[in-house]
Design goal:
The structure holds three protein chains of three kinds. By secondary structure, chain A is of the alpha/beta class. Chain A has ten helices and ten strands. In chain A, a hairpin with a 2-residue loop joins strand 4 and strand 5. In chain A, helix 3 runs parallel beside helix 6. In chain B, 75% of the residues lie in helices and 0% in strands. Chain B is globular and about 50 Å long. In chain C, a hairpin with a 2-residue loop joins strand 1 and strand 2. Chain C starts with a helix and ends in an 11-residue tail after the last helix. The chains are: A alpha/beta, B mainly alpha, C mainly alpha. Chains in contact: A-C, B-C. At the B-C interface, helix 4, helix 10 and helix 12 of B face helix 4, helix 9 and helix 11 of C.
Chain lengths: 240, 316, 287
């Protein structure tokens, strides 16, 4: 059990990318127990790629990634789930022909114990899902699908939750709701690493943030400090 | 068999190998160059054969046409008909993913075969069309062989030129990455359609030559096994995307096929059919072994030279 | 003059056979991402295996079906282990060609072992039942009952077992299934077992409905592909729907076309679907 404030996810000097071409160049990042850390940056900065590398979906050519001290570099995703990591991709993040209930069941796939208490907690967080538990996930609106996607990831009671642009494509009013949910999940004790395009709003709820550009680290600071930094705001936050 | 027998059989063997060679090269244009997975070769092959047969035979009650035209006209129309059919089919299906294109082309070939079988007024149905004349109306096998070889050489030259042309190089790059080609859009689709149409026109040529060579055609010759699958085996065995390899594959596979046919023909009646099944089993197994061991066939693809011939001459 | 009611009945009978074949093809398409051209001949193998138990042990067809189904499932898994597994990383067209070769091998083996002639499960003439203006043969009733049982079993498997849900999940979204910790190789094993079972039953029912001949499965393959594509590839319930639509369409077509063109009708529907709405009715895998 890692104590409060200990590093739970450590990314050091990681380079990697698709098909043998490196998109990431020696990136450093860490996530401490209980933290909410955000990765921002312009399009094509490699933010999603970094997250996928951490989850074994993209090959790491150099560097190391550790989870609670254990080396997990290039381990396949289905094994990472067993170690307490959960990932919500930006797109195609639900099982479209399966119902909400079934999506959550799939989230609990590796669990051998009773997952119903966790499912109740998720329905408390997302009451709309409880109403629509028998509906196929593919027929739901963007916002509802995001709930299903996050719910699926939470079923395994992860130590670390990784979210790739959770507010992408959602109506502005809904974006705020999503950030509230993320905060609530974080307050329940789950460490969260999040990539976001809605940088300003994301940094407001984050403890720390990283700015990535062209596959490299550019800035690292607390959320508030990054928001106050004019250079960062102009060059990387695009006024949003 | 006496010496004369060997000679005649040899010519027969070479001529059929030549026809198959034309089909294999035409397929290589579609598959090797542009990555089109055509399982409907038999359809275009059949259309070409029937077009030429119907045009060049004398009038007959059993089928339509019989316009008694000379062979070159028959062959030209055969190529036109196959090419046109390919254009219509291709315009609708060229953007499909390989599996689906395969199924669609197979389905179309089967539809064509069903029409040929059932529209007796048009094609003579299962009775087929007889009396298709060899070139120049001569019985000399060498003439037929010569015609086939000339066509083969012309086609080989054409396909090789296409392969090393800038167009060919672009298509090769795109063929390796199907997703990229899906995204690349109109330009690529147009090139693929062109190669589909031209390749199919040459399949029609093969069909026409077959008709004039065999003298008789019927729907039986265009079943998927003989009209499509065997050509794929030839291409894969020899090396897809490599035209020389395709030729080697054609002769090799045809040799094995006809030799095993001769051996099984020596067996008594009932056993011969069963031996035929053994033959097919072994061909299937051979193909599997090739796919597992060397999916690129005996001859790997030779990438076209990095710089064109003119520039190479300059640098010498 | 054609009796539309009779055509409907015959269409439903044919449709149930196509549906069972199409479910297997659709799941292989959805999970393994290739067109399994040997599926028809796998059906043929199942039918002939059952025939062996009927002919030599004099078992009733429903009992003979059991060992045939088990053997066919094991053969399906073996085919994957021997041939397809090694080709998974290579292009899907290579898998297609390999399955085409497998089809030839299976068909040839059937002919070698059981001979090229027709066979039937039951000799002699069975008296058809005349009811509701229909001619109902006992064999066609067996087909309907067998298909109904099979579809129920399939539904229970897919909706209520962990493996069934894993298969649907993998077919829906392969990456997300991986991310959720689904053991891919185990699911693939069960997919082949599933496909083999369905193919065997479809083959036996086909043999009951018509007769046994080495090309029986191959002749039905393209309509089965049509049904799978029509229903949406990777969608098992779509495959059932597609099967019935194709079966009915093929039978209704005799109202307008010579019966020789029944197959052509299935192909034309399939080609139209591929061009106009390739994801099928229930929106399966996108192309």
């Amino acid at each position: 059990m890692s104590a409060q404030g200990e590093t739970i996810l450590d990314i050091r000097g990681v380079s990697g990318g698709y098909g043998g071409v490196d998109i990431l160049h020696s990136v450093d990042l860490n996530l401490k127990q209980g933290e909410l850390v955000v990765i921002v940056g312009p399009n094509g900065a490699g933010k999603s790629t970094l997250m996928k590398a951490a989850f074994g979906l993209v090959r790491v050519s150099k560097g190391q990634i550790s989870l609670a001290g254990e080396d997990i570099t290039n381990i396949s995703p289905d094994r990472l789930v067993h170690k307490g990591m959960s990932y919500v991709p930006q797109e195609h993040n639900v099982f479209p022909t399966m119902t909400v209930q079934e999506n959550l069941d799939m989230g609990a796939y590796i669990r051998t114990d009773d997952a119903r208490p966790q499912m109740e907690r998720i329905f408390e967080l997302f009451p709309r899902l409880k109403e629509r538990r028998k509906q196929p996930a593919g027929l739901m609106s963007g916002g509802e699908r995001q709930m299903v996607a996050m719910g699926r990831a939470l079923m395994v009671e992860p130590k670390v939750l990784m979210l790739d642009e959770p507010t992408a494509g959602l109506a502005p009013a809904f974006v705020q709701q999503v950030f509230e949910w993320i905060q609530r999940i974080n307050e329940a004790g789950i460490s969260i690493l999040m990539v976001e395009q809605n940088a300003k709003q994301a940094l407001r709820i984050a403890e720390r943030g990283y700015v990535l550009a062209t596959g490299e680290n550019r800035y690292e600071d607390t959320g508030a400090a990054l928001l106050a930094n004019r250079e960062v705001a102009e060059m990387f936050l695009g006024g949003r | 068999m006496n010496l004369a027998g060997f000679y005649h059989y040899g010519l027969y063997f070479l001529t059929t190998a030549g026809v198959y060679g034309i089909l294999a090269l035409a397929l290589n244009m579609q598959w090797g160059l542009t990555g089109l997975f055509n399982l409907g070769i038999a359809g275009f092959y059949a259309v070409g054969a029937y077009a030429s047969a119907l045009l060049t035979t004398p009038p007959a009650a059993e089928h339509w046409g019989g316009l008694g035209m000379p062979m070159p006209v028959g062959v030209a129309v055969a190529m036109l008909a196959s090419g046109l059919l390919a254009f219509v089919i291709g315009a609708a299906t060229i953007r499909l993913r390989s599996d689906y294109l395969a199924i669609a082309t197979l389905g179309i070939a089967e539809i064509i075969r069903l029409v040929i079988k059932n529209e007796m007024w048009l094609t003579g149905g299962v009775r087929g069309i007889a009396g298709v004349q060899p070139p120049f109306h001569t019985d000399n096998q060498l003439v037929m062989l010569a015609v086939v070889v000339v066509c083969l050489i012309v086609l080989y030259w054409l396909v090789e030129r296409a392969r090393i042309s800038p167009w060919g190089r672009v298509m090769r790059g795109i063929r390796e990455n199907e997703d990229a080609s899906m995204a690349a859009g109109k330009h690529v689709a147009r090139f693929r359609l062109e190669s589909f149409v031209v390749g199919s026109a040459f399949m029609g040529l093969g069909g026409a030559l077959y008709a004039h060579f065999n003298g008789f055609i019927s729907p039986e010759a265009f079943r998927p096994l003989y009209g499509t699958f065997i050509i794929w085996v030839m291409l894969i065995a020899g090396g897809s995307a490599n035209n020389f390899g395709a030729m080697v594959g054609t002769i090799g596979v045809w040799f094995v096929w006809t030799m095993s046919q001769m051996l099984t023909d020596l067996l008594p009646g009932g056993l011969a059919t069963q031996a035929g099944a053994v033959r097919i089993f072994l061909i299937g197994l051979l193909l599997q072994v090739i796919l597992l061991a060397r999916p690129s066939g005996l001859f790997p693809e030779r990438p076209p030279p990095l710089i064109g011939r003119r520039e190479r001459k300059k640098h010498r | 003059m054609h009796n539309v009611l009779q055509l409907t009945y015959d269409g439903i009978v044919l449709g149930s056979i196509l549906a069972l074949g199409a479910i297997g093809v659709s799941m292989i398409f959805g999970i393994l991402r290739f067109a399994h051209f040997a599926h028809g001949d796998l059906m043929t193998v199942g039918a002939y295996l059952a025939y062996t138990f009927v002919r030599w042990l004099h078992w009733p067809i429903w009992l003979a079906a059991l060992p045939a189904i088990v053997l066919a499932a094991l053969i399906a898994v073996a085919l994957d282990q021997i041939f397809y597994r090694r080709l998974r990383r290579v292009a899907p067209v290579i898998l297609l060609i390999s399955s085409f070769a497998t089809a030839l091998m299976l068909r040839a083996l059937v002919q070698i072992i059981w001979g090229p002639d027709n066979h039937v499960y039951e000799q002699g003439i069975s008296i058809p039942i005349r009811a509701f203006g229909l001619i109902i043969t006992p064999d066609s009733l067996k087909v309907l009952i067998g298909a109904a049982i099979m579809v129920t079993v399939v539904h229970l498997f897919l909706a209520h077992t962990k493996m069934g849900k894993s298969m649907r999940a993998m077919s829906d979204n392969m990456d997300l299934a991986l991310i959720s910790g689904v053991p891919v190789n185990r699911v693939i094993f069960w997919t082949w077992m599933f496909a083999g079972v369905l193919a065997a039953v479809a083959g036996i029912l086909l043999g009951l409905n018509t007769r046994l001949i080495p090309t029986m499965g191959w002749d039905t393959l393209l309509p089965i592909f049509a049904a799978a594509i029509l229903g949406g590839v990777g969608r098992p319930y779509g495959a059932i729907l597609g099967g019935f639509i194709i079966g009915l369409a093929m039978n209704y077509s005799v109202l307008f076309l010579p019966s020789a063109y029944k197959l052509a009708v299935a192909f034309v529907i399939m080609i139209v679907v591929l061009i106009v709405r390739p994801q099928g009715i229930l929106k399966g895998l996108s192309l």
